[in-house]
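Forum > Structural Biology > Help requests

Title: Can anyone predict the 3D structure of RING-type E3 ubiquitin transferase?

Hi all, first post here. I have the sequence for RING-type E3 ubiquitin transferase but no way to get a structure on my laptop. I'd be grateful if someone could post the structure tokens.
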Amino acid sequence: MEATPEFNYQIDVNPERKKIGTIQVYSSFVRPANMQPILTRSNFSCSLPANEFTDDEDSPHKQRLYYFLKDSGVDAEDAYTLIIKLTQLACKVTSNSFEYCSRYALLMWLTLDVAPSNEYERNSVFRPASKLRVEALSRRIYKRKRKTSSIANQCTRYKRKQESSSSGDKCIICFQKFKTRQEVATLLCGHEFDNKCIMEWFKVRHNCPLCRFELPREDDQVPQLTTVF
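Reply #1:
Sure, ran it for you. Structure tokens for RING-type E3 ubiquitin transferase below:
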């Protein structure tokens, strides 16, 4: 599915008592009037404490939004990127002391304007990666990193928020953290995924779920690796 995202926000300076210090997230899809409905559920909303949305990477509300986007036809990597951009916007607004304070409520909208299917979409979707290249991917047994001090965690937290294209220690296809002794596959671009997830992914696609790095397609006559920006 091809869609154009739009991000908007509004600060409620006089919210109800129960909404003070919260972020209310709304997401919806807008389709052309002549487009046949393909989405089973096209609206999402949730309300949560502001610091949970900006600081908690594993927030259950973020996971709900992620699966809503995926179930509505958004690719996994695009859903992940949209949530990161929404989080970055929330961090930017809530850190602006001239515009926002903890007594306010923040309302955010993610609207996706769905475009009709076009020739590019028909030609590019469901083209699996070369089986030989997928089988040749580097694989390793995951080992959980040693815990660092709380000070070190605080120093690296901001950096992690800025790494909008990094999967870290989580598979963004299934949105689950890697577990010790789990088999992890590494692409040539450096991104890592649960081996079972990426194997299923490449049965119908040939690009990295995060950065669009492409493997040769199964139907390519001359194998060649390219990166699409």
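Residues 3-121 form one domain. Residues 41 and 72 are 7 Å apart (CA to CA).
Shout if anything looks off.
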